[in-house]
Specification:
By secondary structure, this protein is α+β, with helices and mostly antiparallel strands. The chain is about 35% helix and about 30% strand. It contains eight helices and 14 strands. The protein starts with 10 loop residues before the first helix and ends with a strand.
Length: about 375
């Protein structure tokens, strides 16, 4: 059965369709798991009774390949030394009161016929996230929605591990047509997808992340799967360390209505009078968009001026200035060589891309009391 969400439906209808879709995928996932167990039992029997292990292994592979053709699971088969069959499977399942996706790793020994399965939780998808996905994806079809979820699994392992290590309250996981916003979940499933954002409908705040991600994917695609680098990348977007609040983001509206420029790392702002927006208020809860990229809103750094570090380029701003992670929880900004002196114009900074490493030396550490932030200046 296929559910399609037509445009312009009421929220209550959308929620009902989403709930039915969750029930369907959970039921299908349980059926697929039972089917896999039956297939494995028949394979074990075949391998133990056959006089030709090679033929039995070929029959085994064909059975698994037919099983993996089911549209609501994703998997891969790997043959090792013609004796051991390894396979990986991602399938929907019930998690507490919601829908989750589990990762199943199997290993089947052709000689003995024994096998072992390891199952672990990847993510839970909230009703809100699935509803947003069904509403916003082009086809509004459940098959396309499922494909979108599976496409995010390509990077989910590295990004979820990095998000948890970084201490972020939420982080993105890029999918085929946009990205999910993930957050720490519960013990039974450590990650929950809380919403989905479509390409082309990205705000300035998320747009900064998305543009930098595309640059990383272009110049250093392997780092998209590198947990250590992704941790530095996520940490560099300081606002991800604050709680995600769904709905209308007044701070984001203020940000998008601004007429402002960066001048020597300071923000000059002229905003719509109807929207209160403060930069570096020094009191109360800090506004989402008042975090200056490359500044450090934390304790004083444990290193001194003239210390040397191996930095990683984690962001490139609109004027081509670079934000560098010092790989110790602190960041610095190197201004675009074209707006500095002639000597820097000839430096290798002009050739650095997101994901590249660079040796730097700290020249100055400044504490901005009003912003409760440290600004670290470096040179190469």
């Amino acid at each position: 059965m296929s559910f399609t969400l037509p445009p312009g439906v009421r929220d209550q209808t959308a929620r009902n369709i989403t709930a039915r879709q969750i029930e369907q995928w959970i039921a299908n996932g349980a059926n697929y798991k039972n089917t896999l167990n039956s297939i494995l039992a028949s394979i074990v029997k075949d391998l133990r009774l056959t006089a030709s292990p090679a033929k039995a292994i070929n029959r085994t592979i064909k059975k698994l390949e037919r099983f993996f053709e089911n549209k609501e699971i994703r998997g891969a088969i790997n043959i090792r030394n013609q004796r051991t069959i390894q396979f990986e499977l991602i399938f929907p399942t019930k998690i507490e009161n919601g829908l989750g996706f589990h990762f199943l790793i199997g290993e089947l020994m052709g000689r003995s016929g024994r096998y072992k399965l390891t199952e672990s939780a990847i993510v839970q998808i909230s009703t809100h996230a699935l509803q947003r996905l069904l509403e916003r994806i082009s086809s509004r079809n459940n098959t396309e929605a499922l494909n979108e979820i599976y496409s995010s699994m390509r990077v989910a392992s590295a990004w979820n591990a990095a998000g948890l290590k970084s201490g972020a309250q939420y982080w993105p996981i890029v999918s085929q047509n946009g990205f999910f916003v993930a957050a720490p979940g519960r013990q039974s499933c450590p990650i929950i997808l809380i919403t989905w954002i479509k390409k082309g409908q990205v705000s300035n705040k998320w747009g900064s992340f998305f543009e930098n991600f595309k640059e990383l994917e272009k110049h250093n695609p392997k780092l998209v799967f590198d947990t250590h680098y992704v941790e530095q990348f996520i940490r560099s977007f300081t606002w991800m360390s604050k709680e995600y609040v769904p709905g209308v983001d007044l701070e984001e509206l203020a940000w998008e209505s601004r007429e402002s420029d960066f001048v020597n790392g300071e923000i000059l702002t002229n905003l719509n009078d109807n929207l209160e927006f403060r930069v570096g208020s020094g009191s109360g809860r800090k506004q989402t968009t008042s975090y200056v990229p490359g500044w450090n809103y934390c304790d004083a750094p444990p290193f001194k001026e003239y210390s040397q570090h191996t930095g990683l380029v984690v962001q490139k701003s609109g004027d081509e200035s670079l934000i560098i992670s010092l790989q110790n929880g602190y960041f610095s900004t190197i201004l675009n060589p074209s707006i500095r002196d002639d000597e820097l114009k000839q430096s290798k900074l002009e050739t650095l891309n997101i994901g590249d490493s660079v040796e730097v030396e700290v020249t100055r550490i400044i504490h901005h009391k009003s912003d409760e932030a440290y600004v670290i200046s470096v040179v190469t």
